Amino acid sequence: DSAEASPSVVFENIERCSPDCLRMLLENISGLTVDVDFTVEVISEINVAVATFIKSVDTKEFVKKCSQHQRLREFKMTTRLLELTQTIKAEKLPDSISTDYLRVYFESAWNGGGPVSDVQLFPEENSAIITFCDHKGNT
């Protein structure tokens, strides 16, 4: 078990709950405000949502609260911490993008980044794999 928990929580099997309903449920459970204290990204293609906390929160405790929450159980949703990773894939990049630009962009603290150890550009897919020096440098 990592000493540092992920700031993101995955909600699976979200098809029975609209995105707005999910946001309200998360506000009710956490006592926090969406778009101020946390963000919610819905990935409908795989029936998942990811809540990422901006405010410092014990996400392990939050997952436990969610697993015990009546409404989430009624919706048959499951929750878990999002695994920490050092590598991300950036997609739908412009044709003219360079590895140097991506490195500078993802190293920017303003963008939530951190030191980048490697950038692999795949122009034929308009994508890139960015590897950070540690898992803290990606959001």
TrEMBL record:
One Pfam family, short name: RRM_PARP14_3
All residue ranges annotated as the PARP14 second RRM domain in the record: 5-83
InterPro entries registered for this protein in UniProt: Nucleotide-bd_a/b_plait_sf, RRM_PARP14_2
The protein, known as: PAR14 polymerase
